[in-house]
Design a protein that fits this description.
The complex is a heterodimer of chains A (200) and B (298).
Chain A: H1 3-8, H2 10-15, H3 20-32, H4 34-50, H5 61-71, H6 82-108, H7 114-137, H8 142-168, H9 173-195
Helix pairs in contact in A: 3-8, 4-7, 7-9, 8-9
Chain B: E1 11-13, E2 22-29, E3 35-39, E4 43-50, E5 54-61, E6 67-73, E7 76-82, E8 93-100, E9 104-108, E10 113-117, E11 122-127, E12 132-135, E13 140-145, E14 150-153, E15 158-163, E16 168-171, E17 176-181, E18 186-200, E19 205-221, E20 226-229, E21 236-242, E22 247-250, E23 263-268, H1 270-273, E24 278-284, E25 289-292
Parallel strand pairs in B: 3-7, 3-9, 4-8, 4-10, 9-11, 10-12, 11-13, 12-14, 13-15, 14-16, 15-17, 16-18, 17-18, 18-19, 19-20, 19-24, 20-25, 21-24, 22-25
Antiparallel strand pairs in B: 1-2, 2-5, 5-8, 6-7, 21-23
The chains are: A mainly alpha (200), B mainly beta (298).
Chain lengths: 200, 298
Amino acid sequence: MNCEMIHDRFDSKQAGTLDPAEREAFELHLAGCADCWADLEASRFLAARTADLRREITPPTDLWTGIAPRLQPRTRRLTLPVGWLAAAAVLLVAGTSALTVLLVRRPAAEAPTGFAATEARYQEATLELATVYRQARDSLAPATRVVLERNLAVIERALGEARDALRADPANRAIEEMVVAAYQRKIAFLERAAALDRKT
Amino acid sequence: MRPLWTGLAIALLGAGPAAAQRTTVKGFPVAPDVTLRIQNLVGVTRVTGWDHDSIAVTAVIPAGGGGFYGGGRDRFAKMGIEGQDPSLTGPGSELDVHVPRGARVWVKSGSANVELTGLSAEVEVTSLTGSIRLDGAPRVATLETIDGDLTITGAATVIRARTGSGAVRIRGARADISISTIQGPVVLASDELLSARIETVSGRVEVRAGMQPDGLLEIQAHDGEVFLSMPSAIDARFDLSTLKGILASRVTGQGSIPAGARSARFAVGKKAGAGRGAGITVRTFSGSIQVDSNLRPE
């Protein structure tokens, strides 16, 4: 796989839908490509930040209650012109749409909660360290890079498997702990990698 | 203790086919608790504790292998090889250093192997691919490598051992042990563990050990196999759990674990039956867990 193919598969990787052969090729490439690896980190960071956003918004019922009485068929209003009713319908649609836009925008500013928040913090830390490593990477001896990235690929694979398992069983605290442990391991290793200087 | 070296002596030797090889010998007095920093990225570094208040070093440096630097007095000294090939593939230098037993020793290596013996205070070694071997009983041993093996023999009080794909072998330590690997296998053998924590991603973990009455052993692996061999007279509470792996236990005095079980909690022995005793916890994602209580020699 080349870098473009790797980027095309970020979402599938996140969703855990890569088939075994694709997954192996993906991880093989990632082990030797710091750029793709850092991009994947950034992608994960973004995914964690947006994981808790609502996928759809139902307008609150109090909005409807404010409008509904005016649309209730009343004996004397049965004679209302059709144009008025049409205007009310337009108003309802416009109001609902505007409210939907507002509500959809509002959660974007909200921080993720629960385990997603925990994971977001870990991803933020790993992204920062990955960036530091990425900057230092070119100054490292090729043999050093190979050693570091081979180990990082193993950590990455384990983290991916734990995250896939958590996705399948989101309420499982034991898997949550495994995901956290995998992040901690990754952070510790990245700290060591980032601390290596030109001499090694 | 008497200083063996009272001054500075430098000898430059070399002849024949190894004409380009230089041997440097240097010595100087220091405090018995001197802090010594050593850097040798390629080759081999040997540090030996001795009963003298002085440091003596012999450096053998091949052509193109850089140059020796070093010195110090009282409570601080440093030495090493400068100008080594940063790709770690150049010719390696040999550093043979004798230090007071109570010295605090810090060693930095790249691909150089490091060997330490007879030290009683603190040692800290970092390497990239070089192996690290410690023999003795320092108070604190912190050994870190990315790809090298770690071998520790003796009753160090505190051990922090980290490697990526290298193997960790610890024999004889009893006190506070922390081991972390990525792919490297772990073998821990001890008569009586007080506290040990082992983490690995895919390395095989093998513990052959007795436990102190209130000892703690925690093992966490992703897909690495875990094998525990305990004495039949063990007095401990076991908490074993795997998400996708296979769990098997043949501990004397323990009830049977149903086939296909992913977790088991049980107590063996009098204290453990009363909620005390040693605590043994193993967690894996997909690595198998096997426990048996017929401790066999390694």
